[in-house]
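so the lab meeting is tmrw and i was supposed to have these ready like two days ago... anyway. pasting both below. for each one the top line is the aa sequence and the line under it is the structure tokens. i havent really looked at them closely yet so no promises
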Amino acid sequence: MSIPDGPDGRGPEPPEGHRVTLPDGANPAAPARRRSLAFHRNFRQLWIGDAFGQLGAQLAIFALPIYAVQTLAATELEMGFLTAAETVAFPAIGLLVGAWVDRMNKRRTLIAADLVRAAALAVVVVAGLTGHGSVPLLIGVAVAMSCASVFFDVAHQSYVPGLVGLEHIAEGNSKLQATQSVAIAVGPGLGGQLLRVVTAPALVAVTVVTYLVSALAVGRIRHDETLPPREERRPLRTEIAEGLRFVLGQPLLRRIVACTGLSNLAGSISGALMAIYALRVLDLTPAAFGAVGSAGAIGGLVGAVVAERLSRWIGEGRVIALAAAAWLPAMALTPLALPLAEAGIPASVTLVVGGGLQMFWIVVYNVAQVSFRQRLCPPALLGRMNASVRFLVWGGMPLGGLIGGFLGTHVGVVETLWIAVAGTVVGSLPVLLSPLARMRDLPGAAPTPAA
């Protein structure tokens, strides 16, 4: 395994536990002190870029549905199509992208994806400010952003292990999850306040800037990537099949993928209707809706901070099963917000509690399972493994959005939210009824690197 660049970016530093020559008088028995990745120059640049990119993503996720519902008068079915468009690229091109990313320079891929997303959102800004905005335009922009996000997400998850080393991936993933949680906490609240004084297209313009800053930060990373020699490349079909075989051939990983995929399908059913539920059914203002999202996301931030320790305390396998069970009652609080509001409990309070608990356990689950699969996978297969997982766990999300829009139109918004809760219960079963619930340590941890 290659040793990552040191904190100053000039060269490698000895990994934890690696024997080095000590100066006279030093204690050879003293354990090596582990430095935080906050001092790792290259990871710090990735972290900064990720922070701005995540903030931009959360502002866009918040602003676009409100723009569609309030300004463009989108129907439940149109919101379903918009939700589907946001993830349609993962089942459509995800497997191909995994094979491509394993052949590509990942830093350049991240930069290009940020620039494409900035350009796509700039189209929304221009159209909105000139009075030419429409739901079909938003759907087209969502498809373009979905394609760019496939490249970004696969390259990002494949880049981290080589950048920081396998022995630091749990810390790296925790820091990146914490950044995402902060963005989720800050983004909706900031967006809600800004919408008091600016239009939704003007708010989207802010997201264009954040993606440009993200591209600039990632561009400052100085890390040499070793790509497979061109002559060793095999047909794309062969390489794609290799990634799928790896994921489906690992019994524990197969169960995690099933749990995540079914839960994401159910989450997309409810996600398609959340803006309509909050703004029309519960009669929240955009500012209140943003405040609910921000307050609820504090749970995700707490989850990111404690995820690594919780995994060590409870066990790597057991914490995945615990998280899969614990987010079920939290999700049920979303449809319960309406009857509880009729009983005198403000809907915003119920949504804050439910969202906070749900985000806490989702982040704990993600840190544990992403770190597990990154350790388990050979470095040369990381892109295809991550793309295969994304294909399987996000492939049903466009369908979930369409189902949500259809059911919201023909069954009802609240009833559809309860159907999504039932789907999440089914989704948790592959993990809850697996050996993960009894396992403390998971296989695949990398050995200490050799000198």
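ok protien two:
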Amino acid sequence: MTTLFNNIRIVLCQTSHPGNIGSTARAMKTMGLDRLYLVRPKHFPDPEATSLAVNAAGVLETAVVTQTLEQALADCQFVIGVSGKERSLSQQVMTVREAAQVVKTTAVQSQVALVFGTEMSGLSNAEADLCHVLATIPANPEYTSLNLAQAVQIMSYEVRMALTTGELHYQEKAAELATQDELERFYEHMREVLEHIGYINPRAPKKLFERLRRLYGRTRLEKEEVNLLRGILTLSVNPKKHDKY
């Protein structure tokens, strides 16, 4: 899996704002990518880039700066240009999700580049000509403009989802659900309190209490949640009582 990520590079063309470079580094690192190429950046290295990279400064330290896009792509076998502009070119255009699936199969044995244009105008036609396919983010057609680092984040996320199982990076703590006996004691406690405050008539409860049971039954209450609710019920009728049930 590490090899796949190592075979993928992000290429930024003529970036104007150093903050976008730092934000891109952060976006990459969160998705497991660390190979950054910069084609004629206006300001790099720069303190603003380092600041916005936060803990991804290592991506900036190993970034490769080139004078031409051709140099940044020289050893690549497959190049995807990420662009939101409609073009008259005959290149294949796919969504970033579709492109990520292509990356998954291609990066096994080949070097893959994901190329992004300038903040103001995106990829030029000349830069797009060097790409084998174009990928686009299916945004709101009335406003498709995305910040450069945001576009990198979305593309990097789609690549990560394609390359991995998409599992959480941490183990969620398993909750201990309340037993049926604990639930029944809670329901009885709730009935007593609701009768005490006059919310339900003990002689004619109708369907109200059944609805309350169904409502709580759908939530799959945890043991701690039942204790919390019973504590609220206790204090509702006896504010001075703090005993736990």
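from a quick look at the 2nd one: The longest strand covers residues 8-13. Residues 180-196 form the longest helix (17 residues). will dig more after coffe
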